[in-house]
Amino acid sequence: MQDLKYRDFTAKLIPNIEKERIIGIRSPVMKSYCKELREEECRFDFIKELPHYYLEENGLHAGIITSISKDINVIIKHIEEFLPYVDNWATCDSMPPKVFAKYPEIVYPKILEWLDSRHTFTVRFGLVCLLSFFLEEQYKTEINAKVASIKTDEYYINIAIAWYYSYALIKQYETTIPYFETPVLGKWVHNKSIQKAIESYRISDQQKDYLRGLRLKR
Between the N and C ends of the chain, which has fewer C-beta atoms within 10 Å? Predict the structure, then answer.
């Protein structure tokens, strides 16, 4: 399944992973293989073999978790067993299962726990879950405050915070804009959030002009 050119391309996108730990398998091929394994008994043994060595093994692990059980609590259990071993944004961002949307009352308290973790990609996973499942019908105004309380120098957390706020500006503008009118985020996160929001076609021209005026210069 290896594609060496794709391996080189992937290595540039995920610089914190050693190149020798990347096989180089294109996404459609990985997705097809993942679907095959969802019907195989060997998947139960595979998810116990932690830590994995290759990036693609981690991606495969993330992809088959939801095939292990239909019980949301069991799914969360497997996710929490795997999270300490997640060491890159690509695996992390592919993990939130769609089934989370059906159980907000169970998932939300777990997200709050993940946001308090000392592990970079556990925190990032919580942020990705928030922007994926809790910015529309399940939105709570307290979420913005919780995310704003996360203070770190970790790039992969800060870029996820900016990603979250850009979505929050798009989907929950009225309750999110005060966080930029009276800045409570660090300068980098503040400006990156605005940059990402302005790039969206779902933000009006008037809103974009206003956001540009809220950029921090110092």
Answer: C
* Number of other residues whose CB lies within 10 A of the CB of residue 89: 20
Residue 28, H or E segment:
helix 27-37
Q: How does pLDDT run across 18-32, given as a tens digit for each residue? A: 999 999 999 999 999
Q: What is the CA radius of gyration of the chain?
A: 19
Tell me how far apart the alpha carbons of residues 176 and 156 are, in angstroms, rounded to a whole number. 22
> 130 and 155 in one domain?
yes
pLDDT tens string 112-147: 999 999 999 999 999 999 999 999 999 999 999 999
Asked which of 58, 73, 95 is the last residue of a domain, the reply is 95
Spatial distance between the Cα atoms of 208 and 198, rounded to a whole number of angstroms: 5
**Angstrom distance (rounded) from CA 182 to CA 123:** 25
pTM assigned to the model: 0.94
CB proximity list for 41: less than 8 A, separation 6 or greater: none
Q: Tokens 């993942």 appear where?
A: 34
Same domain assignment for residues 136 and 182: yes
Give phi and psi for 6, each to the nearest 5: -70, -35
How far apart (Å, rounded) are the C-alpha atoms in residues 150 and 161?
A: 9
Q: 159 is in which domain, residue-wise? A: 98-218
Cα–Cα distance, 65 to 75 (Å, whole number): 7
Task: Count how many domains the chain has.
Answer: 2
The three-class DSSP label of residue 98 is helix
